[in-house]
Design goal:
Structural class: alpha+beta
Strand order of the largest sheet: 2-4-5-7-6
Distance between the termini: 42 Å
Shape: elongated
Mean pLDDT: 79
Number of strands: 7
Strand content: 5-15%
Number of helices: 25
Low-confidence stretches: 1-21, 605-618
Length: about 700
């Protein structure tokens, strides 16, 4: 049975509760539909339509359409209104604005009928969105303010955040940046207060776009990255797409065009995959801006043509005409309501006046009726007796007919049940097919990405193996042709160079195999309980000779009783990578510090968001629960990392601004392998660094429960 907490009186409360249930949970309940009452099944379909709003408009529309059919069958007006709303919002995301407006105009009177102020607010908000997309900012602001009033009546704080952000976005598009910033910051403060993640994303994105327009690129980047982080955690593809191509524009403003195009391509791909029409159009515009700033006017023109064609398809003459007709209908209905209210007032005044006259006439009539009442009563008694006799005969005939109808109705009911069961099975099969199609589409996208990555792997492997192979070949030819003439020390030097080149090749191949094993799911860890302190000491000691060659001092204070639950071999590889990097990137004559310590921190409730423990532990228990870790840090006195380096630090084949100080080789894979292995051991790894102030890499592994 569907958890009742999901269906509170307040839709905003229901949305908050719904965060506890994943799409997988909702689909599992959907699979058990034959055992679910129709009302709960209807609410579940609407919940699924809502859950897919920002990831797949097609899926959202599918569930909303099923909810609409069921709501009409059982006569549930409130859920019918919400089914219409979700259907309209899906059409809005697909860019079908005239159809959206028509559906919203059908939903609005239903919300008014059941006095659902939250639903009224959402409907007015989306009508405002359509006006905003047409550049009719004054009309959009009027609808947003009416929606804000409805949300305030419903005490729907999430809805209030939504309207504040939309008002801010409208002022931004109308080039009124101060008002835009004021409303957006107000929306962000309220979203932070109530813990509304979608509101945080919307408001942060808004502020980032405003600051971008004002030329404050560093601050704009911070807000956009925050919006991207929250949207990613919420799987909100609509905003993940927007923030990617917006970050691309910010990068282009700072002349980093490679990063800009990478961001923009990611944003466009997500928009196209989710079929978010406005995001697709905006991603084309982002490419126009980036290529124009780069001076590649031919590419900019190509994307400008795509932008114009897509914009024209969204606002064709037919669509604009339909929207105009519907806007006229809205204005007419509003005027008709005003006229009806005036007519009611006039009718009430006339009724009051006529009532006084009617009262006097009624008194006279009642007197006449009293006189004739007695005669009428006697006559009615005789007629009543005759009528009773006739009814008794008719009842006998009806009894026989009813028995025959009962048999017929029983057979009809049986046939209807069979048809209903068949329809339910077809419905389940359709939903399953739709889900499989969506999964196939995502897998196709993943395959394209994997193919690109495979080509990148081969290109990098070919490039990084070619130089050492050529070196080995040249040195081998030198030994073969002139070996007898060379002194022993030259022999030794050449053989050392061959060994060094071989080690570089071995390191590259080993890292490629490691990252491939991890990504193919072939990493098999064997977590055991052990004291990691001796492993840290051994890893540090193994680099003392190499560090001495560069006059680098390795500092480590031996510790004991540092008991972790982890894979010993993986932990050794992580330590080897981090200490190797610290020595590799440290200038001659500097120091590297390796430290190990125990840590405790309170468990955050969010860490159990997908854990059954939330159903068992009380809130007070969670507050008192402590999480123990063993922390290992490796600090160097090297050049430190820039902001751009920090963003791509743990990525594959990351090429950073810092370079090895002793001619050492770097594959760009070591830190990516470290991150995957640490997270596979339920740990965390991060870096703290400032440019020209060195870098500290920190690994936290879970302490053993008895430690």
């Amino acid at each position: 049975m569907l958890p009742s907490a999901l269906w509170g009186e307040s839709r905003a409360d229901a949305q908050t509760q719904q965060k506890r249930y994943s799409l997988d949970s909702l689909r599992n309940i959907l699979a058990a539909m034959p055992q679910i009452q129709e009302t709960e099944r209807l609410r579940l379909l609407n919940a699924l339509a809502e859950a897919y709003q920002y990831t797949s408009p097609d899926s959202s529309l599918l569930y909303a359409t099923q909810a609409l059919a069921l709501s009409e069958k059982i006569g549930n007006v409130r859920e019918k209104a919400w089914a219409l709303y979700y259907s309209g919002y899906a059409r809005y995301n697909q860019g079908k604005y005239d159809i959206t407006l028509e559906i919203l105009l059908e939903a609005l009177p239903l919300f008014e009928q059941v006095k659902d102020n939250s639903g009224i607010g959402h409907t007015l908000n989306d009508i405002g969105n359509i006006q905003k997309r047409q550049g009719q900012f004054d009309k959009a602001l009027d609808y947003y303010r009416r929606g804000l009033s409805s949300f305030e009546l419903a005490n729907d704080k999430q809805g209030i955040v939504l309207e504040l952000c939309n008002i801010g976005a409208t002022y931004r598009l109308a080039d009124k940046q101060e008002e835009a910033l004021r409303y957006s910051r107000h929306g962000l403060a309220l979203a932070d207060t109530i813990g509304y993640d979608y509101g945080r994303t919307f408001a942060s994105a808004n502020i980032g776009l405003i600051l971008l327009k004002q030329g404050a690129y560093a601050e704009a980047e911070q807000y956009c990255l925050r919006a991207l982080s929250i949207a990613t955690a919420e799987s909100n593809d609509k905003y993940i797409s927007q923030m990617n191509y917006t970050l691309g524009i910010i990068a282009a403003k700072q002349n980093d065009f490679a990063l800009a195009l990478d961001y923009a391509e990611r944003g466009k791909m997500l928009a196209q995959r989710g079929k978010f029409a406005e995001r697709i159009k905006e991603s084309y515009q982002a490419f126009v801006d980036i290529y124009t700033m780069q001076g590649n006017y031919q590419a900019a023109l190509r994307y400008q043509q795509q932008f114009s064609a897509f914009h024209d398809s969204l606002f064709s003459a037919e669509v604009r005409g339909n929207i105009t007709d519907l806007q006229t209908k809205i204005a007419t209905e509003k005027k008709d309501k005003e006229i009806q209210l005036l007519q009611k007032d006039q009718a009430f005044a006339a009724l009051l006046r006529n009532s006084l006259i009617a009262g006097l006439l009624l008194t006279v009539v009642l007197l006449g009726l009293a006189i004739s009442r007695y005669a009428i009563k006697r006559k009615a008694a005789r007629e009543y007796a005759q009528l009773n006799n006739s009814l008794a005969m008719a009842n006998g005939q009806l009894g026989s007919a009813n028995a025959q109808l009962g048999d017929a109705n029983a057979e009809i009911s049986r046939q209807l049940e069979i048809q209903a069961e068949q329809a339910r099975q077809i419905e389940i099969a359709n939903v399953t097919l739709q889900e499989l199609n969506l999964q196939l589409e995502r897998k196709n996208t993943d395959l394209v990405a994997l193919n690109i990555e495979k080509n990148e792997f081969l290109g990098i492997a070919a490039h990084d193996l070619k130089n050492p192979l050529n070196g080995i070949r040249g040195l081998a030819e030198l030994l073969m042709n002139y070996g007898k003439e060379l002194p022993p020390e030259e022999h030794h030097k050449i053989l050392g160079s061959i060994i060094g080149s071989s080690e570089r090749m071995f390191e590259l191949i080993k890292n490629l195999l490691d990252i491939n094993t991890i990504e193919q799911g072939g990493l098999r860890l064997n977590p055991v309980v052990f004291d990691i302190a001796p492993l840290v000491a051994s890893a540090t000691d193994s680099y003392r000779v190499r560090s001495a060659d560069k006059n680098i001092t390795l500092h480590y204070t031996p510790q004991t009783d540092m008991i972790v639950q982890a894979d010993e071999q993986a932990a050794a590889q992580v330590l080897d990578n981090l200490i190797s990097n610290a020595v590799k990137y440290s200038p001659h004559g500097k120091s590297v510090y390796v430290e190990i310590s125990k840590h405790e921190k309170p468990v955050l409730q969010e860490e159990f968001a997908n854990d059954s423990a939330t159903e068992i532990l009380a809130q007070e228990d969670l507050k008192n629960l402590m999480f123990k870790t063993i922390r290992i840090s490796v600090r160097d006195e090297g050049p430190g990392l820039s902001k751009q380096d920090m963003q791509k630090l743990f990525g594959k084949f990351a090429r950073l601004s810092a370079q090895p100080t002793g001619g050492e080789h770097s594959t760009g894979l070591g830190l990516s392998i470290v991150k995957r292995m640490v997270e596979a051991m339920n740990g965390k790894v991060w870096c703290e660094s400032e440019l020209d102030k060195g870098a500290t890499f920190i690994v936290e592994l879970p302490a053993a429960t008895n430690a």
